[in-house]
Amino acid sequence: MQTCISSRLGHELVVLRAEGRADLEAAAQTDELIRRMDAELRGLGLSLADTVRTRLWARDRASRDQGSRARVGALSGSARSASSSFIAPDVFDSDALIAIELWAMRPSRPGQVKTLVEYDPPIVPLRYLVYDSAVFLSGVTSVLPGLPGQVEEILAGISGTLAHARVGWEHVSGISCILHRGESLDSLRSLLAARAAAAVPTEFSFADGYSTEGKLIEIEVTAKLA
User: Fold this and answer.
1) How confident is the chain (226 residues) per 10-residue block, as mean pLDDT?
2) Which distant-in-sequence residues (6+ apart) come within 8 Å of 108 by Cβ?
3) Helices (H), strands (E): how many in the chain?
C-alpha cells in the first residue's frame, strides 16, 4: 500500500493506494482492500469515517460492477464518501482485479461530522459531501453523443451542484478529468478552456471504460467553502 500525506484545503489529507489480492474474487478483493485501508488509517489516528473520496479501478467491466457493489456495502453510513469508478487494466502492476484510491481528511477538531448530500432521486454515488471546510463532488459523467456534448452537460451539472453547496467555481481547488483513452487530450483542454473551469488547476488521467457504455469522461471536483 502506498500512503501519501499532504496539506490541502487547509487540512491534512491522507491518500492511500493499493491493489487487491489476486487470489480473491473482485468483491472479496474490495472488502480486503478496505479492511487494510481502515487499519492504515487507524494507525494514523483516523478512520473510515474520515473518508472523503474513493476511486475504484477495475481490470474489466464485471470486476468494476462487483467491486462497486462491494464498496457500497463496505463504505456505508459515516464512511460514505464522494466516489467514482473506472475500467483501466493498464493501471495494474499485479494480477489484481481491483485497485482503490482512498482519500481521508483530518478535520480541524474532533467530532466533526460529514454532511452527505444525495441526488434527487438518490442514486449510488453521493451528489457531494461537506466535511469541515471542504466540499467533495462525486465523479460526474454523461451519455450524450461525443465529447463536446458530454463535457458541456457535465460542467453544467457541476455548476448546479456547486451552487447547491453555496460555492462557485472561484472556490474550486482542483478538477480531475479521467478521459477515455480513445479521446483527444488536446480536444478536452480546448473544451475546458472555453468554460468556467478553465482557470482551475486540473489533472488528467485515462481509462478504458466507466459505469456504462458510451461514456467518454468522468470529472471530479474538490472545493473549499466560501
Assistant:
1) 93 97 98 98 97 98 98 96 97 97 94 94 96 96 97 96 95 96 96 80 96 97 93
2) 10, 11, 132, 133
3) 4, 11
